[in-house]
Design goal:
This protein has about 140 residues and is an all-alpha fold. Helix 1 packs across helix 2 (about 25-35), helix 1 (about 5-20) packs across helix 4 (about 45-65) and helix 4 runs parallel beside helix 7 (about 110-135). It has helices at about 5-20, 25-35, 35-45, 45-65, 75-95, 100-105, 110-135. It has a single domain, classed as Tetracycline Repressor, domain 2, CATH 1.10.357.10. The chain has seven helices and no strands. The chain is elongated, with a radius of gyration of 17 Å.
Amino acid sequence: MKKQKEIIMENSRGLFWEKGYAQTSRKDIAEACVFRPANIYNFFPAKEKILFEILIDEMNSIVEPIRHLENDDDGDPEIQLKALIEKHVQLTLGELRSSKLLFDAELKSLSARNGKAVVALRDEYNRICATITGGG
């Protein structure tokens, strides 16, 4: 059985994808979760915190499986590139398919501090890609 926080994030991810972050209210999220709004506040004191956790979760899903490739000097570049492409396609076309949030205007909805944390992970991903493709 899914925990309440997971249910909130899953439903929020879908609503943010369909309606956009700004057009999604906390009431929309509570209704989608079949919770009272107070249940949402127990886990996320602000709507931005939900978006931030979704974006950090997605960036970690992208970066974690390939992080080791950045310093793998002995690895076969063709195998590394294949792993990078497979993971990227899997995430962008996979079940979540909300990585659109990472690369469009929703990032501007975060506070400067939270935005920097997400951008730092995105920069790490770009650095790993550049290393693997010989551009880094």
